[in-house]
Design brief:
Blueprint: E1 15-16, E2 19-22, E3 25-28, E4 33-38, E5 50-56, H1 60-74, H2 80-83, H3 86-101, H4 104-115, H5 119-146, E6 150-153, E7 156-164, E8 167-171, H6 179-190, E9 194-198, H7 211-217, E10 223-225, H8 230-239, E11 245-249, H9 252-261, E12 269-273, E13 278-282, H10 288-300, E14 310-316, H11 320-333, H12 353-366, E15 370-371, E16 387-390, H13 397-400, E17 407-413, H14 417-425, E18 428-429, E19 431-435, H15 439-449, E20 455-458, E21 474-475, E22 478-479, H16 484-490, E23 492-500, H17 503-514
Parallel strand pairs: 1-5, 8-9, 8-11, 9-10, 11-12, 13-14, 13-19, 14-17, 16-17, 19-20
Antiparallel strand pairs: 2-3, 4-5, 6-7, 7-23, 12-22, 15-16, 18-21
Bound molecules: glyceraldehyde-3-phosphate (G3H).
Length: 527
């Protein structure tokens, strides 16, 4: 079948992206390139993936150049950027977000081609990121204002603020290549750190239109953007021991292998958002229509390729039949389309994914599950129609593995200890969705669930947003907390100036403030 692409979203010629940003200079790569191919039009094997561009396959030498630039700009905390006035850093960020906004259409188009995200969600990802930056600026002003007060205790006067940590290596995921990466990068740099950022495997070309904005907004070395394979670029950087913060949203196995390369582990701070296996628990008195709708969105928006997606459903025996019937019918009604058609289901960007999902389905079938919905498991070259696997059990791969794709295992329960034990034994502890009405049942359950995960969603599917709320997890799901406010904390440390409370010191402090001699000791308020 030939697909027609609306002219405004078409990519007529491959985008040959040749540049990178190191030490404030846009460099032109003259080495090897990786092809960037899109799966979205290739529903059949005989339609090859569309070549949409090329991106630099940079090498270790350039990875280390980027590190040197970040290291030089930080200069052990004595560089221009980490010692700059807060409002000057804020001005740089404001300039960046203004320039970034001009690239909306280009980035949105590439989000659709590179990762198959539908048009509305691609626009949402861009706009949410812009909002995130603006909110970060406001929050930083607030933190700065809160730090503008002297404290006096036991004869010691102190001015306590938050200071940067150093060089940040920033690695984001393919499912939110803009939003989640920037939710690390932006708070990291505004706090005075310097950064090296390497985009994920998918969602690379969409970063290219923003290189100029970074170059024109920040001093040299503050943000360095390189392209290439993780192993070739991130590993040598970690081995030097010069990275102070590893900021990664992705898989725990990558986070562990990168940490292991660092020679001085106690110096390394971690800000990690990792995988999850968020369950839905549907109690016998749940509002069925609501539970069905929330579970569909929760498990299948962006085809389940979200760390917060519902990845296993526990439904009470009493209502399982009704729930499964409605759930399966509604899933079979979902439309699969191209990103600009704004369907919930869109092609999978990873070429190996359909086979992986199909293998999970086959494995579950061998171990006693059936595919309950009529279209479940229908496979094409770039998609697998969402499959409801029932009854799932602990022998199946899909019970433990984070599927990150369109397959939904469902397990019936009579005894609430069944889902609770699943959560207690799981390696993950991000969120849960709990559906029910009786406060008598919900109350004690909530009291346990909040200690197994970090967010209990009542009659609501799991999600990260709104971004002002804390996003974190227990066990292998996260290290540190992200939210507009928490991210600023995660990328900084409290540091302060203390002095014995006597006349001489008071006089010095007064002069420092009045004559504006220090960017740290000051009491001005940024409005
Ligand atoms: O991949 C995980 C994302 O943080 C999920 O964010 O809940 O806003 O889709 P979301």
């Amino acid at each position: 079948m030939l697909h027609s692409v609306p002219p405004e979203f078409d990519i007529k010629e491959p985008i040959n992206h040749k540049t990178y940003l190191i030490d404030g200079k846009i460099g032109k790569w003259d080495g090897e390139y990786s092809e960037v191919k899109s799966t979205i039009l290739s529903s059949k094997k005989n339609i090859p993936y569309k070549l949409i561009g090329h991106s630099p396959k940079m090498d270790e030498k350039h990875a280390l150049k980027a590190l040197d630039a970040a290291d030089k700009a930080y200069k052990n905390g004595t560089g221009k950027w980490p010692t700059m006035k807060v409002y000057e850093r804020i001005n740089c960020m404001q300039k960046f977000v203004d320039l970034m906004k001009m690239k909306r259409e280009e980035v949105v188009k590439l989000l659709m081609w590179e990762i198959g995200k539908n048009l509305n969600d691609s626009r949402k990802e861009f706009d949410r990121t812009v909002d995130y930056i603006n909110e970060t600026i406001n929050e930083y002003k607030k933190i700065d204002r809160d730090g503008a007060t002297f404290q006096n205790n036991s004869g010691v006067r102190a001015l306590i603020r938050r200071g940067p940590l150093g060089v940040v290596l920033c690695l984001g995921p393919y499912n939110y290549p803009l939003n989640e990466t920037f939710a690390l990068l932006i708070p990291a740099i505004i706090m005075g750190n310097t950064a090296i950022f390497k985009p994920a495997k998918h969602g690379v070309l969409l970063i290219a239109p923003l290189l100029d904005a970074f170059k024109n907004s920040f001093p040299p070395g503050v943000v360095n953007i390189i392209f290439g394979r993780g192993r070739e670029m991130a590993s040598p950087i970690m081995k030097t021991g010069k990275v102070n913060v590893l900021a990664l949203i992705g898989h725990s196995s990558s986070a562990i292998s990168l940490q292991d390369l660092h020679p001085q582990k106690n110096r390394l701070r971690l800000v990690l958002g990792l995988e999850a296996k968020n369950p839905a628990i549907i109690l016998d008195d749940a509002d069925l229509d609501l539970a069905v709708n929330e579970c569909i969105n929760g498990s299948l928006s962006f085809n389940g390729q979200r760390c917060t997606a519902l990845k296993i459903i526990y439904v009470h025996e009493k209502i399982k039949e009704k729930f499964l019937k409605q759930f399966c019918e509604k899933i079979d009604d979902l439309k699969l389309g191209l990103p600009w058609e704004n369907t919930l289901l869109t092609p999978l960007p990873e070429p190996h994914k359909p086979k992986y999902i199909n293998d999970l389905i086959e494995d579950a079938k061998e171990k006693g599950a059936r595919v309950l919905n009529k279209k479940g498991g229908e496979i094409s070259n770039n998609y697998v129609f969402p499959a409801v696997l029932y009854p799932a059990n602990e022998e199946m791969k899909v019970y433990k593995e984070e599927q990150f794709g369109p397959v939904v295992p469902v397990i019936p329960f009579n005894d609430i200890d069944i889902p609770i034990s699943f959560m207690a034994e799981s390696n993950y502890g991000q969120q849960v969705s709990l559906f029910g009405k009786s406060e008598k049942k919900l109350g004690p359950l909530i009291d346990s669930l909040v200690n197994l995960v970090c967010r209990v969603n009542l009659n609501t599917s799991c999600q990260r947003g709104p971004d002002v709320f804390p996003f974190t997890g227990r066990k292998d799901s996260a290290v540190a907390t992200l939210s507009v406010h928490d991210a600023l904390r995660s990328f900084s440390i409290r540091t302060f100036v203390a002095s014995r409370d006597n006349e001489t010191n008071k006089e010095i402090l007064r002069k420092l403030i009045d004559n504006k001699e220090s960017n740290f000791i000051r009491t001005d308020y940024y409005l």
